[in-house]
Amino acid sequence: MFDQWRMVELFSEWMVNLWNKWEIRVLVLFSLFLQIILSFFGNKRKLIASEWIRVTIWLAYLSAEWFSTVSLGVLSSQVGENATNSPDDDTRSQILALWAPFLLVHLGGPDSISAYALEDNELWLRNLFGLVVQTWIIVYMLLKSWRNNWLSFLTIPMLIVGITKHGGRAWVRRSASRDHMRGSLPNSSKSSPNIIKLIEAQPFVLSNDTVLNSVEKVLEAPYSGSRSNDSRKLLDSLYFFSKFKYLFVDINLTLQDWHNTRSFFLSLTWAEAFQVIENELSFMYDILYTMAPMIYTPQGCILRVVSVLCTISALVVFIVYQNHMHQNVETMITYVLLAVAVVLEMCSMVLQLYSDWTMSWLIDQDHKVVAAFRSHAIHLLRLQDGHRWSNTMGQFNILSFCLKERPVALPRIQKFLHIDKVLERRRYKTNVEVRNELKEVVFQQLAEHSKSAEDFKLLRLFSSSRGLNALEKANLGGLSWSIEGEFEQSILIWHIATELCYNLDLDRSPEASIKLECFRSGKSISDYMIYLLAVSPNMLSSSTRQNRFEATCVEAVEFFEKLKEREPGLDKKQLCSKLVEAYKISASAASKNRGETIRHVLFEACQLVGILLQGGLRMERRWTLICEVWVEMLCYAAQECSGSDHAQQLGQCGELLTHMWLLMAHLGISNQFELPPALIK
């Protein structure tokens, strides 16, 4: 018995010694691994609509700071410990001290991500305080292990890189904070003749007249062959971004902005308009969530060169002088830290060179190599096919959700963890590509209203019509009851009605319905709006409640379960037909209880379907009306969502709603312009 306990004690002691020896090695290497993940995937959440990508980046982002901080604490306890007992211990202590500046570099993070959420930018002061404390700890460790040899002097260039990285991150977060952005509205008296100020100036300390004078000359001048259509759209995007970025912090624009943007966007095709919007939102993402506010300034370029030179020089010096050292694990890890740091710096430099910010400067300078550089570099290095966002829209179908068409994995565990309801809605959420046909339909409808409006007041009325304008246009103003209630109720009524019409028309005339573009677009927008209501209600309105959604689901589940008990084996189309038939039978009973609107969303939707199907509307006209109503509802939702919510969503691969919001502002269909009272009247 004693021998067994002795063996356990010896084994435990061996494990403790092993961990003490490898603890700092594992922590530093894992911190480096997290930096690699963030460097290559930090920007992917803008382009890929995958929850796995977002979760991976989120975990890496949170873990990176924690591991670097813990590593710094462990390192501080080991540097200088028993350093004078032997030359090997002294050398190891100096190598560990060399690792400290690398941890400061890791705390600064890569260029691809400076913040995961907007709240991180608001905490810039805490980040700055952390920089001061952590730098002081590292300087203390370096002084503690200083030996006046090449290994000690090697810590200086890496310390410079670390302070540059960490300090730059704090500065960028401050630049992207809401208070700083709102307080940096440029002075209109300033001017400059060159678009290069877009790159040289701090992105949120940029003079509007600077951009206006420089870009308008470019836009009005005829383009030479060296300036492609893509180049022109990039310059257009920079011009409008310099002004419309303030909408994200709820600052209204001027009458001159309203006039300029409206006239310009009405001259574009739908493809050109959406491309400019994409570019603008891409620039906004860079400002809020990456190191762009620093690295695309002259000071940032200088710091980039200094950082690269310091890292490369440290690697070269270590390679030259390490022959005099005993090769051990610490030496190999130092090799890895230096080599990976050089590779990451070079990759960041390459990405910076072919970015849209750099390209805009090259285009303005009229370099002869611009066209060739763009065509080759972007095709070789971009993983996406020209898009600067995911180009997807979420889809959710309330009837499929209520019919429980998808199986549940580990239901008891989900219920025990109280995540069953959240995961249930996520399970029925899908993503589909935003088709060009849908963009064209939306742009044409918005442009038509922008052109036909006689004054600004009519444009504002359209943004809040919620479908009434489309109903009156079709001489169906009597259906206004379907959109005059709470917005949540209107979405539910029209979504269920759209789904019923979709299944019934698809059953009656499958070939004819599929050919209709409004048939597909109306269905897509309907599923998108109910997705926002079910999964992202904050994007609709801060006052959106989900009690009506939940009550409607309960009502639908009860109806379908009773129907399945009486007639098992019915498919979705047959269930939709039965639902409409049940409404016809119960219409008189339902009309007596119209006050209980929560319990009768299903029947109000069926009433709407009855009018749409039997109101003398041909299928094409019916679906044109449905599509127009949904576009107006989409416009209303986009207008009700705050600029900060739109900015927050940019970090989650973007939303079609945000593109609609910015497109409406460019077409003048927005209440975010400060206009004289006489003009509004």
TrEMBL record:
Keyword annotations from UniProtKB, A to Z: Membrane, Transmembrane, Transmembrane helix
Pfam families (alphabetical): DUF4220 (PF13968), DUF594 (PF04578)
Domain spans labelled DUF4220: 58-401
InterPro entries: DUF4220, DUF594
The keyword Membrane is annotated on this UniProt entry: yes
Signal peptide: none
Regions that span the bilayer: 24-43, 55-75, 95-117, 124-143, 149-172, 301-321, 333-354
Protein origin, superkingdom: Eukaryota
Entry keyword Hydrolase: no
Protein name, entry field: DUF4220 domain-containing protein
Species, as recorded: Stephania yunnanensis
